[in-house]
Amino acid sequence: MKKGMLLLAAVLALLLAGCGAEEPKEAASAPPEPSVGQGLPPESSPEASAPPEAPAPEELLARQPIDDTHDAFLVDTGGKLGTLLVTVELGERHELGGFSLSFAVWNPADMSQPMEKMEKEASNAFHWHEELDANFDGFGDFSYTYAMGNQPSYGYLWVWDENREWFVEVPEYAQISSPRCDPETGIIDGWARSSGAGDGETTFHRWEYGELVCIRRIESCCGWGEGEVSTVSVEDRVDGELQRVYYEEFPWDSEEIEGKELWRQAQYPWRDLDYHGEN
Fold it and tell me: Considering the entire predicted model, what is its pTM?
């Protein structure tokens, strides 16, 4: 009996020793929390990294000053650059009259600096521009009036060059009074009145190899009393230059009122470019 009790005690001791040899596992630790003042790493945001969207041309135009010394307008080139902004600044007046004009052309997609600058002179006109297709190539051009009278008016012209993405000035256009562009005929005609009698200069221009040239000029001058004569002169472009093809004088006739109008009747047929005089 005693030996059985000792054997049971020995077995219990061995079991307790085996349980104590195995150490308990530590629980997994959580990541440390950020200390005070230490933020989490920033997350990338597509909205934050995208560049700001360029303002629309109309919005840029609304921001421009238009007053006694500033002007601005838009020109739709119809090309890859689309609509461009043109600003004009009036310079100081000259001693002999007139003033300088400073033009700048801006691309709304990049307003860091103007893409083109032009310096011109004006006599008595400001705030007068026209958007047109003056060379009939489908791209937008613009003109700016620099002189204006009772009827005659004159303006500078810049046509858009899509290949160079540039406005190119057309000097010949500045010599045409009150120009009108006809896309059906490809002709630009002009009219400058000399007096209340309706005499003056009529011109017809067209484009040849990229240049604007005068192909006919009609000049009329009305006499105002006895002893005076009225004249009509016509020049046509021949061999690359203007040559006189018609000239006639009409004496003043106080007894025949209709005779005073002969000069006027003589110039009308020449307004038709297919007319080249009577055989």
Answer: 0.79
